[in-house]
């Protein structure tokens, strides 16, 4: 009997211990951190192209390249149609191949469930699901046209999607709970309605004409001071009503249609997320295609997990940990600011693959305490050691102990510059730190040869008073005391440099007023050890700091510099 009790206890305790070792989120100051293998972890990653994990041969070919590129994490699709090609019959061989290859190449994995929706459409649903449109109905436009989009209002659609997702996740848990290779899961991909802002099927229209759920109204009332400005303005435009239909509470336009549809999508995802928590308790998120270029809902994927709909998603899908943007438009700095909110940590799930990504990754980690940065179709990038992204990722992986140590503590800033945004001024202690693009130095011929400047960027970390880390590429920083400036002449000089005092000419010398000045004591290129301590490489005083005038890292070069300042008068 004692032996039987022991084995029963072991069955319950071992899975619990395994789950406790899984990745999870924690707060540090104002930052939300991903914890992997017991330590804060930054996803220095990339997302595979949509079809790049559909072939075992492609997986075997791509993953060693990703290691050479310097990734620590890869985002990989898990395809419903290939997981359940025949209804009720599951094939997990691609998932197993991904996990094995990730372990062999020292990579972590974020799986993306391509289920009922991928980029709005149902293109990765199995053929047996698509063909049986009566059992698994579609969304409809206002004109009555059926779409290649499964209906979020069909219980049959949900049950089929969730059955496959749960079976797949149970398999992941069975092969990964001990190792923890899979660190996060994305549910669906770029959910959203196209052509119209909402589904006009009979089931959807019936709910649209029904009262707004009291649960959502209560959320709006309880969080009124913290609501997203667009949501607050929409609600206030109708007098902050406490009951009524969707149109009565929010008005009769496509933006109300979008709010209703977001609520419906979020409820669907929440049901999947709640079950996922009981199977494999890793962080869960959803990603969004942007509402860019002045498009209206339906012209962009309406009702997805967009920033202006965050209150809808938080209320209807509280089990989801965060909303992530997919960035393919101009205005990178403005877009990321929309998603680093008091109630949403920043994770760049997708961004267009280009050379500027190297410094942009530094920027989001330094400025917004980002969880991760992942260019799309990463396998198409270069794995040459001098490629910008490869250099950037190698430097970021080395810098990670310091970045995670100072996240959320108001001691770190990200920097990003181009031809239109060449300068930023920061203040720490009694210092005024002027940060610029490296091409602003007058002797650099590339600054004025007519070519487009590559972006320059990095991170500034305050270690202590008069002690900083500067890392990145294409940067120049000057350190001065606040208020430090040349003294004004005590009297205005004439053209000859003289003024008349008591009938006699007297030259007035210019000089400095005020107190202490800031000087650069030393600039050392360093490595960062795993414990966050610094390892000296070389001294960069003299020509490298322009005889104590500034600290710089040239475009095309990624470095970590340890800067010590001193005061003098």
TrEMBL record:
Alphabetical keyword list: Signal
Name of the protein in its database record: Beta-galactosidase
Residues making up the signal peptide according to the UniProt record: 1-18
Keyword Nucleotide-binding: no
Domain Glycoside hydrolase 35 catalytic as annotated: residue spans: 33-212
Domain DUF5597: 390-552
Transmembrane regions listed in the UniProt entry: none
Keyword match tRNA processing: no
